[in-house]
Amino acid sequence: QENLEKFLDSDLLHNLSHLDLSDNIIFDDRMTPFLEQFNSKNLVHLNLRNCGLSFDSLKHLFENKHFSTLRDIDLSSNYDIDQFVIKLAKTETLNKLRKLSVSNTY
């Protein structure tokens, strides 16, 4: 987990177009700062499947304008995804989104 946190804080993320963090139990307290501070205009695919996340951290996908380039998000096997989907229907931040995976959510 320590290496993952260092990676999330690194400058390497700025040029990525695909980021797969699936099956890393990150939880909201570690993911929220990352989602709040994320700064990349290239990211189009984000996989957060089975990361132990809930709407508390995922709401930052709407609040950070740098996620507006996303076309594909996988949030499967996380928590409170129904709130995310309701908010998604009311936002323009993720207007380029073409694929949303939310299978096996709680």
Concise description?
By secondary structure, the protein is an alpha/beta fold. It is 32% helix and 11% strand. The chain has a four-stranded parallel sheet with strand order 1-2-3-4, with no helix packed on it.
Order of helical and strand elements:
HEHEHHEHE
Quick one: overall form?
A: globular
Helix content: 25-40%
SS summary, helix count: 5
Query: Quaternary state, please?
Result: single chain
How would you describe the overall organization of this protein?
Helices cover 32% and strands 11% of the residues. It is of the alpha/beta class and 106 residues long. It contains five helices and four strands; from the N terminus they run H-E-H-E-H-H-E-H-E. Strand 3, helix 5 and strand 4 form a beta-alpha-beta unit. The mean pLDDT is 88.
Task: Describe this protein with a few key phrases.
106 residues, globular, 32% helix, 4 strands, alpha/beta, four-stranded parallel sheet
Give the arrangement of secondary structure elements.
Elements (H helix, E strand, L loop, with lengths): L1 H7 L9 E3 L6 H11 L7 E3 L7 H4 L1 H4 L8 E3 L6 H8 L10 E3 L5
